[in-house]
Amino acid sequence: MIRRTMRLLNQVTAQAVLAPALSTRMFLTRKGLTSRQSVLSGAARLSLLAMVIGSQIIFCSSSSKAEMPMKVTEIEGISEYKLENGLRVLLFPDPSKPTVTVNLTVFVGSRHEGYGEAGMAHLLEHMLFKGTPDVPSVPKALQERGADFNGTTWLDRTNYFETLPAQGDNLEFAIRLEADRMMNSHVKGEDLTSEMTVVRNEFERGENSPASILGQRMMAAAFEWHNYGKSTIGNRADIERVPVERLKSFYRKYYQPDNAMLVVAGRFEPKEALRIIGETFGKIPRPTRVLDNTYTEEPAQDGERQVVLRRVGDVAVVGAVYHIPSGAHPDFVAIDVLESILTMQPSGRLYKALVQGKKAASVSGAAYALHDPGVLRFMAEVAAGNDPQVVLDSMLDILNETASKGVTQEELERARLRLLKQREMGASDSAEIAIELSEWAAQGDWRLYFLYRDRLEAVTVDDVNRVAKAYLQPSNRTVGLYIPTEKPERTSVPATPELAKMIGDYKGREETSVGEAFDVSPLAIEERTLRTRIDGVQVAMLPKKTRSSTVVLRLTLRYGNEKSLFGLAKACEFLPPMMLRGTKSLTRQQLQDALDKNFASLSAGGNAGEATFVIETKRQNLVAVLGLLKQVLREPAFPESELAVIKQQVRANLEQGLTDPQTLAVKTVSKALSPYPAGDVRSVPTVEEELKLVEAIEVEGLKRLYNDFLSAQVGQIAVVGDFDPAEVESAFKGVLADWKSDQTYERISRTGSVPITAEVKRIQIPDKANAFYFGGAVMPMSDDHPDYPAMIVGNYVLGAGALSSRLGDRIRQKEGLSYGVGSAFRAGMLDQRATLSLYAIANPANMEKVNAAVNEELARLLKEGVTQQELDAAKQGYLQAQQVGRTEDPKIARLLEENLYAGRTMQYVAKLETAIADLTTEKVLEAVRRHIHPNQILTVIAGDLAKE
């Protein structure tokens, strides 16, 4: 899977696509893979730990002497240990987290690949999910414990992590699993054959995005010699032709304890963790081979480089990358601040000039924090009607001006505060820190995580202006066109500093406050939940101690009805985001600055008849942030300029959908499953129709919608975290007081009785290497139906269980046809309407095989039902996954809010989980036969089908 963030563009992950939302975009997650069969039962399971001697794997016996880790240092609650075999160990106990996260980082990425090995680190990451002699299926072993897990590959490292409930032997299981597969994973020819096509399909999926390809082309042009210029996912020829023996050699060379770091975070006993680590990793001998350090150094660039990419698409993209020092270099933090000053919304120089100036639909940037000198990247999506070259020239003018004239103290403080806020919010989750430490360790030392913060707090405007002048030079950049220069300039990038000398005995600060050990069972949550009402708004509050005193609040206001909102569906979507774009007292920038000062985020979204606002902040700032929310709710300004920005962003996304296989397939099925007339808020417009609806949105219309409909007459509030209930209730009374509407609210229902005839529609989209398969059905069922628990489990076995589901096992694991395949089942809380969706990505030439395989597996489910083993695995996996989900406060807040809306409590969740635990194979078979009818499933296949 390719995971994109501001820092991790092109990072590649190994787990399958799981469940798409019924929208024009599929959101890929790493949630929900579970199974039943017990795979590791004790120390005897480690009898096959391997060491490298020459080219042979030698197995050490379970009687090998266990070595206990020796403590090296401790910083802000994180303790470092080291084994004699070279393994580094970090322990981060957090009693407030009812889960434990184990993260193994192996310091090998695409930087370490040689000739003919492009993509080998990533391909090997996939292979480490194929099992060991003791663990035949790694996904299944993790799934049975409700684990949230994944593997990712990047330029400098590969990591494997899992988060499990902190109960039973889960900690020992996870540590033993990582020790086992680090040394004993199957790297077999038959597995390579099937997985190679999966990785190739992942490669093809990336080929569908011109923006991603442009970014990679610029990297390739910027780095003539260093491997950072090569995509982590690799070269198609190398992926297809890699010999299994060469892959094994790569595995034996790099997957050794002296080249790895293990992180354990969450609720656990450090002594117990150290004992287990000593008995597992501690028994692995130190390898006799010596790893060579990579020594290729990119010479100073001798002139501006340019790339032109021509592919089918609808939205032009321009960009520029500049060489910068490594993430460990003292200059890096000033460069990171510089990037924020240029791209952050709404104050960023590029954002204001290009997006608000209506030249670009969006801008983005990233400073790559890498082991060796990396790049600073800027990109922009060109707004319709603009010349891409003009937009690129405008971007470069701003960058050149910044280099020559510098930035202001106000810009520095704003960017610093935003970055500190983002770091502080991330630091409240020990599981997130456990995974984040992989990135810092890959730069050379995990303690850079703290040193970065210290440097960020100390950086000056002179530092930022110095690095801007040093690195934002024309001769140091790669853009979209080539232009010779008479007098080439050179920019020398400093080498990575000597970390031991620079960091020394760094001590860090006092450890942040920790939360309570919270019971996430449904009835325990119910027992601690307080409920009240503020006029027409229902309130659920769950006060508890949290790490860093964080608190989450959700407010949903409901308004209008089917008749009064006719023709206003798109305006309802625009209303909440526009309310965040400034108030009568605060501009958008002032509002954002106030949120940053309170270390808070405020987001908003909505659909027809509902507007939702979400706050995340700290206890001491909550009342102040509620004051800001009051201004947003009661005094929105609806500035014309901001509406223009939102419209061009939405328009750009929709225009990309005109030639996107996934968008068109999902739209086609969704429209058929919601056969309402145009103008009805439940109808699904085509992309072309939606573009017209967006163009018709005007400020005056949004103001009328707000003034006529929005009020506090009907709604729900959920608050979870560290807060004073009486204080919050009092503050909210002030927020919602005397807010009425003359319009009547009536819930808009959706029918589940839609006549659909089985059909396979094909949509031809030229020049798309990846095709999309989507099938959908609708049925009359709500989530309190007696068959609902059985349908959940039936769908879990069919495709929601991802890699070890029937669809995943056959189409991805065995036949290697698709990188992402699965199914999803959802039922309404109040409506008698449920949907079943089936989806897959694949090469167009393989789509008919995918279609046949999906139909065969669905028919097998309806004929045979599920086995007892599958049932046990699905029940345990699903229930433990739900438990893991309830460890996240935003998810608990959403659950409490939904319960208020549906008129129920957490007792409903407890009863549902009991019903799932009591299921039999007969009940599942009866339910799927009763509700799933293949002759009522509409299927759409979209892509460059002419290439079949």
From TrEMBL:
Q: Which GO terms describe its molecular function?
A: metal ion binding; metalloendopeptidase activity
What is the uppermost EC class here?
hydrolase
The cofactor(s) it depends on are:
Zn(2+)
What GO terms describe the biological role, i.e. biological process, of this protein? Answer: proteolysis
Which InterPro entries does the protein's record reference? Answer: Metalloenz_LuxS/M16, MPP/UQCRC_Complex, Pept_M16_N, Pept_M16_Zn_BS, Peptidase_M16_C
Which PROSITE patterns would you find in this protein's record? INSULINASE (PS00143)
* Residue span(s) of domain Peptidase M16 N-terminal: 88-234, 574-668
SUPFAM superfamilies, per this entry? LuxS/MPP-like metallohydrolase
Q: Which domain of life is it from?
A: Bacteria
Segments forming domain Peptidase M16 C-terminal: 243-418, 698-877
Q: What is its EC number?
A: 3.4.24.55
Alphabetically list the UniProt keywords. Hydrolase, Protease
Can you tell me which family this protein belongs to?
A: Belongs to the peptidase M16 family.
Q: Which PANTHER family match?
A: METALLOPROTEASE, MITOCHONDRIAL-PROCESSING PEPTIDASE SUBUNIT ALPHA
**What is the name listed in the Swiss-Prot or TrEMBL entry for this protein?**
Protease 3
Source species of the chain: Planctopirus ephydatiae
Gene name tied to this protein: ptrA
